[in-house]
Amino acid sequence: NAGVTQTPKFQVLKTGQSMTLQCAQDMNHNSMYWYRQDPGMGLRLIYYSASEGTTDKGEVPNGYNVSRLNKREFSLRLESAAPSQTSVYFCASRPFPGSTSTDTQYFGPGTRLTVL
Amino acid sequence: GQQLNQSPQSMFIQEGEDVSMNCTSSSIFNTWLWYKQDPGEGPVLLIALYKAGELTSNGRLTAQFGITRKDSFLNISASIPSDVGIYFCAGPVTGNQFYFGTGTSLTVIP
Question: Do A43 and B48 make contact, defined as CB atoms within 8 angstroms?
Fold first, then answer.
């Protein structure tokens, strides 16, 4: 049981390049999330997927797209990377509300992205 | 968007000291969550609070759900070096979204 896994761990891009960040969870969770973390700003939600087949914008969606490929996988794509997208990206998953005694999110280890 | 303000932003304390931090919101929460993020890792849940006035402990950690439902507090007693990290408060604001505070960075000096 690996929990939430993210690939790659580190990435350096040039401005204008594209890339996809991968996330997978093996806990049979319904909801999945993508956050970015910048110094002094906490975690800000980019996109989330409440269940397989649905995606919704979060607080900072501009410049990103997502795909909920199946129940396990939720990818984040940067079509044309910009220096402002330099950040640490975290994927998280959450069980169906009420299905466990603790309503929380489980986080992956993060992807550290630098855009030059 | 939702504002969750944490204070202090950072703390430098001696090993063995107690730590207090808090989180305030501009609106009411029905759940408060406290996470810890170790350097280079993702956040991990420490304590969950579900009722106004609730006081919950997890080892040396104690968290309280404020009576107004707009604040929460986390205390760490007898700090040790492995307490180093960033502490976040969070709460669900819609059925599926969570908002996170800006974090309190804790440094423990041996």
Answer: no
Residue type, A64: Y
Could you say which residues from 74 to 103 on chain A have a Cβ atom under 8 Å away from some Cβ of chain B?
90, 92, 94, 97, 102-103
CB B72 within 8 A of CB B10: no
Of A42 and B108, the one with more pLDDT: B108
CB distance A89 to A113 below 8 Å: yes
Residue-wise pLDDT tens digits, B2-53: 678 999 999 999 999 999 999 999 888 888 999 999 988 999 999 999 999 9
Contact list, A56 vs chain B (CB under 8 Å): 96
Nearest residue on chain A to B43, judged by CA atoms?
A107
The pLDDT tens digits for A46-84 are: 999 998 889 999 989 999 999 998 999 999 999 999 999
CA-based nearest residue to A4, from A106, A94, A111, A114: A106
- What is the secondary structure of B35-65 as a DSSP string? EEE-TTS--EEEEEE-STT-EEEETTEEEEE
Is cis: bond before A8, omega within 30 of 0? yes
Q: Does B97 touch chain A (CB under 8 A)?
A: yes
* B106 touching A (Cβ < 8 Å): no
